[in-house]
Amino acid sequence: MSSVTDADVERVRALVAAIPVGQVSTYGDLAAAADLSSPRVVGWIMRTDSADLPWHRVISASGKPAPHLAHRQLDRLREEGVPVRDGKVILRECRWEIPSAT
C-alpha cells in the first residue's frame, strides 16, 4: 500500500462523516472521491480511525457488510431505513452520490 498521509485520512474521515442517515457509500466510491489509489486504503483508514464515525454506512461494492461485523452493521443500517435483502444492502436504492469537489 502506498504511503497514506494525514491529509488522506482527513479526506476519508470527512467523507464518511458526511454520509447521510439512510444512505451508504462503498470503499471504492470513497477512494475515488478522496483521490486514493485503492479502496483498500479506505478500508485501512476505517479499521484504524473510525470509532467516532458512522462506519456502518461504508460497505463493499457488492452490498455485503464486513464479515466480522455483518449482524451489527446490517442491524444499524436497517434502523436507519437502509434497504437490506438476503444479507446485502440494495445499493441502487440508497447509494450516496458524493458531491463533486468543484
TrEMBL record:
Occurrences of domain Methylated-DNA-[protein]-cysteine S-methyltransferase DNA binding (ranges): 10-82
Species per Swiss-Prot/TrEMBL record: Gordonia desulfuricans
Keyword set includes Transferase: yes
UniProt xrefs under InterPro entries: ATL_DNA_repair, MethylDNA_cys_MeTrfase_DNA-bd, MethylDNA_cys_MeTrfase_DNAb, WH-like_DNA-bd_sf
An annotated Gene Ontology molecular function: methyltransferase activity
Name of the protein described by the UniProt record: DNA methyltransferase
Biological process annotations from GO: DNA repair; methylation
Keyword field: DNA damage, Methyltransferase, Transferase
